[in-house]
Amino acid sequence: MTMSRLAAQPTEVLDRSTKLRFRWNGKRFDGFEGDTIASALAAAGEHVFSRSMKYHRPRGILTADYWDPNLLVQVGDDPNVRAGHRRLEAGMDVRAQNVWPSLHRDIKAANSLVARFLTAGFYYKTFMRPAWLWPTYERVLATFAPGGKIDLDTPHRYHDKRYMHPDVVVAGAGPAGIEAALAAAAAGARVLLVEHEHAVGGHLRYSSSDSDQAVLAELRAALDASDVEVLTNSTVTGRYEDNWLGIVQRNHPIAVERLIKARAKVLVAAPGLIERPYVFSGNDRPGVITSGAARRLINLWGVKPGERAVVFTANSDGDAAAADLARAGVEIAAVIDGRDHRRVSSAQGSSKALQAVVAGGNRIEADLLVVAAGWTAPTSLLNMAGDRPVHDPAAARFFPSDPPGNVLATGGLAGDGTLDELRAHGAATGRLAAQRAAAVAHRLQAMTARARPVDGDEPAWAPDERTPLGRDPHPELYRSDTHGMVDFSEDVGSKDLVAAAHEGYDSVELAKRYTTSTMGPSQGKLETVNTVAAIAEARGETIAQVGTTVWRPPYAPLTLGALAGRVFEPVRVSSIHPWHEANGVSTIIAGQWMRPDHYGDPAAEVRNVRTNVGLIDVTPLGKLDLRGPDIPKLLNLLYTNKWSKLPVGKVRYGMMCSEDGVVLDDGVTGRLGSEHYLMTTTSSGAGGVWEWVENWLQTERPDWKVHVTPVTTAYVSINVAGPKARELVSRVTEGVDLSPESFPYMEVRLATVAGVAGCFMWRIGFTGELSFEIHAPSGHGLHVWEALMDAGQDLGVGPFGLEGQRIMRLEKGHFIVGQDTDGLTLGPSTGLNPLIKLDKDDFAGLPELAWAADRSLPMIVAIQPDDPNVVPDEAGQIVRGDTNEILGRITSARMSPTLGRSICLGQVEPELAAGGTKVTVLLTSGERVSATVMDHHAHFDPAGERLRG
Amino acid sequence: MLLVPCPNCGPRNSADLRYGGESHARPDPATATPQQWRGYLYLRDNPAGWLWETWYCRSGCRRWFTLERNTATNEFRNPPIPGDKRGGKA
Amino acid sequence: MTGIGRRLRRRPPKYSAAALAWRGMRGDYWPRIWRDTELKSSYDAVVIGGGVHGLATAYYLARNHGITNVAVVDKAYLGSGASGRNTAIVRANYLTPEGVAFYDRSLQLYNSMALDLNINVMMSERGHLTLAHNDSSLRTMNWRAEVNKLQGVNSCVIGPDEIKKIAPALDTSSHPRYPILGALYHPPGGVVRHDAVVWGYARAADYMGVEMHQKTEVLDILCEGGDGPDGKGPGGKVVGVRTNRGDISTPVVVNCTAGWAGLISAMAGVRLPITTHPLQAAVTEPVKVFLPTVVVSGSLHVYISQTDRGELVFGAAVDAVATYSIRGSLEFTEELAGHVLELMPGISRMRLLRQWSGLCDMTPDYSPVMGFTPVDGFLVDVGWGTYGFKAAPVSGEQMAEAVATGRTPKLIAPFALSRFDSGELVGEKGAASVGH
Q1: From CA A247, how far away is CA A259, in angstroms rounded?
Q2: Average pLDDT over residues C310-334
Q3: Tens digit of each residue's pLDDT (9 = 90 or more) over A864-894
Q4: Domain-embedded: residue B86
Q5: CB-based contacts of A293: which residues, under 8 Å, 6+ apart?
Q6: Residue A881 burial (10 A CB sphere; 0-12, 13-18, 19+)
Q7: Pairing of strands A407-409, A266-269
Q8: Is the minimum CB–CB distance between A709 and chain B shorter than 8 Å?
Q9: pTM for the model
Q10: Is the dihedral of CA C369, C372, C376, C380 positive or negative?
Q11: Is C157 domain-assigned?
């Protein structure tokens, strides 16, 4: 086969005045603006573009469009680029994929010599002995992986996505699709028209008929004059629930690809038809192309596809291809008409080029075989909408059966007809789509009428009164009297499928899985029907009996970069964060927050808090502002302890359990006014507890008057801890008597701090020291922090981070929900039984907690290793002596700078929970060390004298 | 992406809401037997068909509500009921 | 195969390179992998669900206990449900001793499966990395590693440098939103060719006399003596199964229907603690192999492996909304791609080729429900959620033992349905967030 460039064609899309220079396998080539990579190479005489996956057979152009399975190439760092579709750009570095050492001398082509043993699924039947060799076999098999190469240094440049809310989306801008879009827009609908190709027009684009070109010009002008938004080189990749559509736009000026998400009220599927290859011996030889490929090459890119052609045609498109070829100066050696029961039996030649075609027993010399054997209806979008298309043997393709009312098909998908009939059907579809879109909008509104009153009566659901398109008879041409390739991507032949069917893999899905037919990059676009036909033939059934596979999204592949876009998971920081950064903070990610972990030496931070005073930024602490008369009832319901008698100005600790009795959250809640409380939650529980509170209020106790406002980020939270905390806080606070008599432990006041009014000040802390926790309006947070730092210079004030706080809370034996507890830790396991008031009428988890009172449960206990220098790992297991029997685990462990020894919290089986019990802790090193369970949780200041100071 | 009819906000993408699962009534904790209570905690009808379920309009009005969805087809029917938890059940 | 009571109908045509060459030379077809037989009116046991669990149960009933008058019925084709839709990852690095012991046995059976079943299931012991992005998940990794070590399972926590050596595509620098602080490394973990497991069990069971019936949908379970209507429910017993191809009488029915488990159990009057959620997965176009291990991130809800064909296979957490629809969603692919690129920013030009979805039977404690039910003769092997494939061999082995002996084997005792009456759930819930 010799392809070459023709003189300018009237319909071509080339700008011959702009030459584009590029590289193909390292060699320099030229093409024109408007060429695809493949058309430029074909015009330059290239005819082998890839090697097949398994047998490494040379492959040339087959369909010359996006779906061409033989035209996957590497362009720079971009693998698997569709050379039949991708527009040529100057400077492109294009390479063949999956070849070694080169496209023309590929060593693995030797596989074709043993092809008869490499039947489908051969790998399931061998490589089993000796078992130790399998990893080696596997490595060798992996070298056969097809596809391009990933450059791991490729940066992920994110592109934002676009959201659209059109009334009607038309997928496919052939004549029917364009008419549908125009008619829907004329009826007042907002319309988006999406075309997979680089330009609208469908098959008219490569038609050499003057009348077709006139219609195309008319349609383009009408589109230009309309309000229809047109996206070319874009594909509706999926139809999801409620007509949620994914659309990939490949020609965005900035993004490599952009994902558009559209909620269409009605989707019109008008993708046209995909030409189906014919199965015969040698059908994958370079030089065998589809009729569409021939017409596109000639009419769009001015490429002469060969010198001497045989045309096998069973339809008008094949006839048109023959005419185009003749006009392009290709000698027509023979036209074999499939409608007369004539067949092509084989394509013969050298490994890389076609030399002759055998048909009806005759050998015809030719370097080109053009095949028009029929169509595959790409029913993907209908499948995704739940439709199960049915096969019509008389027309030799599938047709829609019963898609939902908000999905309409038109164009070739719906039937055949003259151009006028197709246009009329498209226009009728557009009008119907617009009517139904209005009804859908009304229905949605009616469902939620509370949100927005409904305007007028619901429009009637427009019945489908379109004049159906006809169905042209077409011979059922799937396989000739020889065997050939079915799935070009996967190197699966009809022989493989027949063998699989005989072996019992006789349903489409089993055969597909066994042979991998339709599983490769073409995803069934070309090979689904031939796959089904081969199985049907082997079983002696019809295609309809065998059925088809379900087309799954995406309709066309799209890059991970487009799907990902920007990751909308920002990290939260408090308004004090700039100070932390300026002061050598080491941060830690905790949930959504980035928090100060320490400022260089956590142990020193602890010592400073224990001797002087320290500040910690605890802004992520969950904060809920509660207002209303029924708050005590709510707190009684959510916490395990009692809240009815909490006076104004007092604060209380509480534990929440889920309905299954498992510890859910904990924190303190204070009463700020007669009907005003502030609830705090754990940092990680902030969001969940809020929803939990709302759920109880809205669904279980809707009559209670409580209003909840989450204020976590409205306030910056600063804990001032240490023996000198009162002195420090008093220097910046107005309006509150801070003396221990008038503001004792576990109370709350409204204060002005550093001139900032409206700060809540609590006398609580997690560190066991005298503490003041200040919640200041976020905007003033940094100011308050800096004021405290300035005011405390002479007191030795310093910051401390999460690590210091964790050490100090462990010294005090406070457990952390989610670290010292887990998803099955029941309330009583915390040792806080006095806080579980089983005599209350009701609270979340009450029955389980009541029943749990009689059970012996694992307990959270304080543990000290007998060797004070050994700090077990968090997660270190507590085992029975020298055995591997697990009796518990260490949940928290640190070296205590205060006590100069290691300290832990752990969960142990009840038999080990008593103070003084000796336990064995297994270190990650494998060493077993002995440790002692303590009488109470606090390792330090168990009486709590310091914090009350 | 399901289009969930929120009673206050109108149709919303399901990503804007939290799914609360099958609607079911909470037994009286004073009288519930372990079997009844654990049925409430763990057992579900899980039908392939119409199901009353609970949603929370997390990014919108912050209302919990119930509505009826067909778990085989993901269609909704009937207007949602705000503040409800039991759905069609007593 | 050394099991007792083997009743071979005929010698299986052995799979081997030599046999492949011989048939290749002669151009012979291989015989059917399992027979196509008429549905009989009576069986000693009926297994509902022709996935890996059902087929393994039938295989071990025949191989280990000589019970061969067994039918496996499936409403579609064998392996059409979750067995053919999962991401084929196997591992034993669970959190609880019960879980570890159970999955470790499963892994052993997978390792010897190619020789036991004489089909290459392509067990690829390529190692399994579970990444930790914060100190709390690192703590959970340590916890798992410690429990694993005590159970003799090879797993350990490694740092970013070692992770980078094992999987260079991962971004182990400190700047991402989800920095990689460490990982639980489990060298015996890997992937298996899931379809081959389905076919291997079916073929081996077939040769021992078990019948596989595809396109056979169970419409009802026939019971008598129970508290409920039609003799169903607690206190009753199973007497048969009604299918679209006729009634079968049988004293034993084993429910292995994953996402449909609740519907099938309801036919016997047994209520389950199960909700059905889709689990989605996706695959990219192939590129040259660059990812040698399985990579999992619990925080990012993603797991990744590269097939020998070069495709990246992605999985995620189950969808939040309960549904029997398996259409899949766009947002799944968006979130997936975002999270994958967080871990491996260099693959943004790879293209997503196909997405699919399967149904998972989720339980409140992320552990299965196995064994006997209040209806005599009705056994369940359900509630597998997202872990079913990993557990198939051992589940089949243990369920077969339960059927054959009438007693609950020790290995599955923690997974009894009755635990939801006593409230003593299995602790795997603590590890559930860390996923696959």
Answers
A1: 6
A2: 94
A3: 999 999 999 999 999 999 999 999 999 999 9
A4: no
A5: A61, A62, A63, A64, A65, A68, A305, A370
A6: exposed
A7: parallel
A8: no
A9: 0.94
A10: positive
A11: yes
Residue C188 and residue C107: Cα distance in Å, rounded? 8
What is the extent of the structural domain holding B47?
3-26+33-77
A245: closest chain B residue by CA: B1
Contact A259, C334 (CB under 8 A): yes
Number of structural domains chain B divides into: 1
Phi and psi for B42 in degrees, rounded to 5?
-120, -35
Which B-chain residues 34-63 have CB contacts (< 8 A) with chain A? 34, 37, 40-41, 54, 56, 58, 62-63
In a domain, C216, yes or no: no
Interface check A450 vs B, CB under 8 A: yes
Pick the range with the lowest mean pLDDT from A124-128, A511-515, C281-285: A124-128
- A830: CB partners within 8 A, 6+ apart: A655, A663, A815, A821, A860
Tell me, yes or no, whether B82 lies in a domain.
no
C18 has pLDDT over 90:
no
Q: Give the tokens for residue B63.
A: 């209302």
pLDDT tens, residue by residue, A98-153 = 887 788 887 877 777 777 777 788 888 888 877 778 888 888 777 778 889 999 88
* Contacting residues for C57 by C-beta, under 8 A, at least 6 apart: C47, C254, C256, C381, C395, C396, C399, C400, C403
Classify residue C252 as exposed, middle or buried by CB count within 10 Å of its CB (0-12, 13-18, 19+): buried
Residues of B in contact with C366 (CB under 8 A): none
Q: Which two tokens stand for residue A238?
A: 């999926």
**Separation between Cα atoms, residue A612 and residue A603, nearest integer Å:** 14
Strands A901-908 and A886-896, sheet pairing: antiparallel
Q: Which residues of C touch B74 (CB under 8 A)?
A: 323, 325
Q: Report the pLDDT value the prediction gives residue B89, as an integer from 0 to 100.
A: 59
Tell me the residue range of the domain where C289 lies: 128-188+276-362
ipTM exceeding cut-off 0.90 for this assembly? yes
Chain C: partners with 3+ C-beta pairs within 8 Å: A, B
- Please answer whether residues A341 and A281 qualify as being in contact, where contact means their C-beta atoms are separated by less than 8 angstroms: no
The CATH number linked to B41 is 3.30.2270.10
Looking at residue A8, the DSSP 8-state letter turns out to be P
Q: Is residue C167 part of a domain?
A: yes
Contact C322 B53 (CB under 8 A): yes
Q: Which two tokens stand for residue C409?
A: 């084997």
Q: What is the spatial distance between Cα B55 and Cα A171, in angstroms, rounded to a whole number?
A: 33
The stretch A577-582 carries a mean pLDDT of 98
Total number of domains in chain C: 1
| Chain C residues in contact with A507 (beta carbon < 8 A) | 77, 214
Phi, psi of A62 (to 5 degrees): -115, -55
Q: Give me the residue label for tokens 């079983």.
A: A539
Whether residue A562 contacts residue A259, with contact meaning beta carbons closer than 8 Å, is answered with yes
Whether B84 maps to a domain, the answer reads no
Q: What local confidence, expressed as pLDDT, does residue C11 receive?
A: 61
Among residues A85, A93, A1, the alpha carbon closest in space to that of A47 is found at: A1
Contact C281, C357 (CB under 8 A): yes
User: The domain that contains C154 carries what CATH number?
Assistant: 3.30.9.10
Residue B85 lies in a domain: no
In 3D space, the residue among C210, C161, C215, C163 whose CA is nearest the CA of residue C184 turns out to be C163
Q: How far apart are CA C268 and CA C265, in angstroms?
A: 5
Residue C39 has pLDDT above 70, yes or no: yes
Q: Which chain A residues contact residue B83 at CB under 8 A?
A: 698-699, 702
